[in-house]
Specification:
Blueprint lengths: L13 E4 L1 H4 L1 H4 L5 H14 L3 E6 L19 H8 L7 E7 L5 H4 L10 E6 L4 H13 L3 E6 L7 H12 L5 E6 L6 H18 L2 E6 L6 H11 L3 E4 L13 H7 L8 H15 L8 H8 L5 H8 L5 H9 L5
Parallel strand pairs: 1-2, 1-8, 2-3, 3-4, 4-5, 5-6, 6-7, 7-8
Helix pairs in contact: 3-11, 7-8, 8-9, 12-13, 12-14
């Protein structure tokens, strides 16, 4: 395991920008083609290692009139941005367990510019997730297993799940703080657990953090310091609810000179600032409360959509307390 300090270069680190995917949850994936192409160019110039274009889910399950193209990540749509992607930056997509028709919607790798399939799963879905991992592996793809909402799991259940995933052909296992409920001290302990499994089975470990308590960046660099190599971010932290670790923060923090902030800073000026005037995301008090009490952020999303500001009542609702 390659470790270092805050001033060292660790070449095994990979920055994964998930703006189109996690950010797409905020606006139902309605990004313009110009936005997607500019983000691809910025990530490429910045030295980002992986760019996640969105979800790969079945059009049989979702109404295509209600979502933009990056909900589905059709091969032609990705190629319209990247061509043959003859670059060092890899392309990833995410598939939730049970939401893609593997036999008809996942092309063999030789026919696709996608490099990495990230399989999102809950602990109770691990057997099905492993089937998806095995299928994508046989099709020639690199794979990751992103176990969601781990702050809600019993440690014994999580350890059992990690053992099963470790035995699979998966390449990367992700720590996912879906609720933004974990603190750096907890991340260190969780990272040790994942890294132990990674060392045992020869797997890389990644982290995908949410910013409900404004700890996504802190948790990411804590995991990095422990030896976690795959680090997720989104530009301006754009993502579901409180959003994610900021890609630009990671690029500024990492000391490898191949990472450059300026291309992403220019993208922020030209695209993210205008977008922020019409689309809301990021830290807010309701997300703080769901993070503090380890509750699903959709409660906070609904609170904000309703235009509510009765934060005290919302806190009691989360806790199930009666009003007096």
């Amino acid at each position: 395991m390659e470790l270092g300090n805050l001033q060292s270069v660790r070449k095994s680190i990979k920055v994964v920008d998930a703006t189109l995917r996690d950010g797409g949850i905020v606006n139902n994936f309605y990004f313009t083609d110009e936005f997607a192409k500019a983000l691809y160019a910025a990530n490429l110039a910045a030295g980002v290692d992986y760019m996640e274009f969105g979800y790969k889910v079945s059009k049989k399950l979702f109404d295509v009139t209600k979502f933009g193209k990056w909900k589905f990540c059709e091969e032609d749509d990705i190629r319209s941005v990247v061509g043959e992607n003859k670059t060092d930056m890899k392309i990833s997509v995410m598939s939730d367990v049970g939401r893609v028709d593997l036999a008809t919607e996942v092309l063999p790798k030789k026919e696709s510019v996608i490099d990495l399939y990230r399989i999102a799963t809950y602990v109770h879905q691990i057997p099905t997730a492993i089937e998806m991992i095995e299928f994508c592996n046989k099709m020639g793809y690199k794979t990751s297993c992103n176990i969601m909402a781990i702050s809600k799991n019993q440690e014994s259940d999580l350890k059992n799940a990690l053992e099963e995933v470790g035995k699979s052909p998966v390449d990367i296992i992700y720590i996912v703080d879906s609720f933004g409920a974990l603190y750096p001290e907890e991340i260190r302990r969780v990272a040790d657990m994942y890294l132990e499994v990674g060392a045992k089975y020869g797997k890389e470990i990644g982290i995908h953090a949410h910013n409900n308590q404004q700890l996504a960046f802190a948790n990411t660099i804590e995991a990095c310091a422990k030896g976690v190599n795959f680090l997720d971010g989104t530009v301006c932290g754009m993502g579901r609810g409180a959003g994610n670790c900021f890609t630009e923060s990671l690029l500024g923090f990492l000391k490898n000179p191949r990472y450059k902030m300026d291309p992403v800073l220019g993208f922020i000026r030209e695209y993210m600032k205008p977008l922020s005037k019409t689309t809301a995301w990021g830290y807010d008090v309701p997300y703080l409360l769901t993070g503090l009490y380890n509750a699903h952020p959709y409660a906070a999303i609904d609170f904000l959509k309703a235009g509510r500001t009765d934060y005290e009542k919302f806190r009691r609702e989360i806790l199930g307390e009666n009003e007096f």
